[in-house]
Amino acid sequence: MELRLMRKHDAKRVALPFANEGVREFGSGKLFFNENGFPFVMEDNDIIMPANSSLTIPNKKVDMPLFYLKITRAGEYPVEYCWDPLLWDAYIVNEWGKTIEKL
C-alpha cells in the first residue's frame, strides 16, 4: 500500500509506499530513495520517497493545520512527514492503485 498525496491545484502527486508489515496511525512504513539518497522522481510527476536512507524535514511553524505521517524504520526512531490538507488530498492506495481510504 502507499499514501498518495494529490496536489489540489495541479497534477503533481507524491506517493509514499508502506512496508507490508507497517502499522498505520496516520501512516507508517518505509521510505524509498534512489542510489544517491534523493527521492526518486518519475516522468509522470510521481515522487516516490523510499529504502535504507534518511529523510530530513525542516521544523517550520505554520498557522494552518497539518496532518502527520509517521514513518518507522526497523531499529530507528520514527520520522514524521507532514502535509498541508488545504493544498493536498491524501489517499491510502493499494498495490493495484485502488483507493482504500481518503484521509
Would you kindly provide a written description of the structure presented here, covering whatever features stand out?
The chain contains no helices and 8 strands. With 103 residues, it is mainly β. It has one domain (2-102). The strands form 2 sheets. Strands 3-4-2-1-7-8 form a 6-stranded mixed beta sheet, with no helix packed on it. The chain has a two-stranded antiparallel ribbon with strand order 5-6. It is elongated and about 25 Å long. It starts with a strand and ends with a strand.
Largest sheet: 6 strands, mixed
Total of domains: 1
How is the largest sheet built, in terms of strand order? 3-4-2-1-7-8
Helix content: under 10%
Number of helices: 0
**Shape assignment:** elongated
Number of strands: 8
**Category from helices, strands and their pairing:** mainly beta
β-strand percent reads 25-35%
N- to C-terminal distance? 14 Å
Mean pLDDT reading:
50
Helix-strand topology string: EEEEEEEE
Tell me the radius of gyration.
13 Å
- Uncertain spans: 18-34, 36-74
Which features characterize this protein?
mainly beta, two-stranded antiparallel sheet, 103 residues, 8 strands, six-stranded mixed β-sheet
Question: What is the topological layout?
Answer:
Blueprint: E1 2-7, E2 13-17, E3 40-41, E4 46-48, E5 67-71, E6 79-83, E7 88-93, E8 99-102
Parallel strand pairs: 2-4
Antiparallel strand pairs: 1-2, 1-7, 3-4, 5-6, 7-8
Short description:
The protein has 103 residues and is mostly beta strands. It is 0% helix and 35% strand.
